[in-house]
């Protein structure tokens, strides 16, 4: 999720229809990433990099899709109802311009890769921050400033990142509840990799994912200051370094 300080956003982020489940991970590759412990002289960021970059990039997305199915129709309906109940009057924007609707329609290009195009509800929210988030594996919400700020490819990039959280939903909730900030930062980097590989699979430049993160940060930082949950996220410098490594790995240069 993009970092913000809004109470509504924190409330949305805190809601989950699923208790943390430690009994299984989303996929073998996820286990390799999330269970890798730091060793002498190596940071968790370096351990994560090694775990991902030692896998076959051609099998990365297929592994995830085979191991984690979309949320069930029953849970999806409950999540959408819970989401709608959490919004204040006027919290959702439905009067969208043609340009805004075209941007939203273009998201199907990345959602189709994960068979999520008919699973996620997409909602536009009246929030001051430029932010995009994911609710209970069922709702992708986009603030209007984010919708207007990002171009089509950047919006596809940040949504591709959010899809990564679907595969690690229980693990993310467990880390949030346990205030395991190193694990949360690892998960964010993993979702960056999912986002970049999704863009590549869609025939788009993987660079759009990081560009969306940078553009949202440039908008929010001077207006709202340092977010309250900043320690849950890697620094932009770490994300840039990681993006360069993932792009090289995807090109077969590792």
Determine the N-to-C terminus distance. 29 Å
Please state roughly what percent of the residues sit in beta strands, choosing from under 5%, 5-15%, 15-25%, 25-35%, 35-45% or over 45%. Answer: 5-15%
The whole-number mean of residue pLDDT values reads 82
The succession of helices and strands, N to C, reads HHHHHEHHEEEHHHHHH
Spatial strand order of the main sheet: 1-2-4-3
The value of Rg in angstroms is 17 Å
**Estimated helix fraction:** 55-70%
Tally of strands:
4
Main pleated sheet: 4 strands, mixed
Total count of helical runs of at least 4 residues: 13
Low-confidence stretches: 2-7, 13-44
The overall number of domains is: 1
Shape: globular
Give the helix/strand class: alpha+beta
Account of the protein in words:
This protein is of the alpha+beta class and 254 residues long. The protein has one domain (7-250). The protein contains 13 helices and four strands. The chain has helices at 7-14, 28-34, 44-53, 60-67, 73-86, 98-105, 108-111, 144-149, 152-167, 169-177, 181-201, 207-224, 236-250, and strands at residues 92-93, 121-125, 132-135, 139-143. A four-stranded mixed beta sheet has the order 1-2-4-3, sandwiched between helices. A hairpin with a 3-residue loop joins β3 and β4. α11 (181-201) packs across α13. The relative contact order is 0.17. The model is unreliable at 2-7 and 13-44 (pLDDT under 50).
């Amino acid at each position: 999720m993009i970092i913000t300080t809004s109470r509504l956003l924190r409330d949305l982020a805190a809601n989950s229809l699923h208790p943390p489940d430690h009994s299984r991970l989303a996929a073998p590759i996820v286990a390799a990433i999330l269970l890798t412990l730091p060793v002498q002289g190596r940071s968790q960021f370096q351990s994560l990099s090694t775990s991902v970059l030692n896998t076959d990039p051609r099998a990365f997305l297929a592994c995830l899709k085979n191991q984690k199915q979309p949320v069930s129709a029953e849970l999806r309906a409950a999540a959408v109802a819970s989401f709608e109940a959490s919004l204040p009057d006027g919290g959702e924007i439905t009067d969208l311009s043609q340009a805004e609707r075209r941007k939203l329609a273009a998201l199907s290009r990345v959602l189709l890769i994960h068979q999520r195009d008919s699973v996620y509800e997409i909602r536009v929210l009246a929030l001051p921050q430029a932010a995009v988030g994911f609710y209970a594996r069922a709702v992708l919400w986009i603030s209007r400033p984010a919708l207007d700020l990002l171009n089509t490819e950047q919006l596809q990039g940040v949504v591709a990142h959010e899809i990564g959280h679907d595969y690690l939903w229980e693990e993310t909730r467990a880390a949030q509840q346990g205030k395991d900030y190193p694990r949360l930062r690892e998960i964010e980097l993993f979702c960056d990799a999912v986002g970049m590989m999704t863009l590549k699979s869609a025939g788009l430049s993987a660079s759009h994912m990081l560009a969306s993160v940078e553009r949202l940060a440039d908008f929010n930082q001077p207006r709202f200051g340092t977010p309250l949950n900043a320690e849950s996220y890697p620094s932009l410098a770490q994300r840039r370094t990681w993006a360069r490594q993932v792009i090289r790995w995807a090109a077969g240069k590792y």
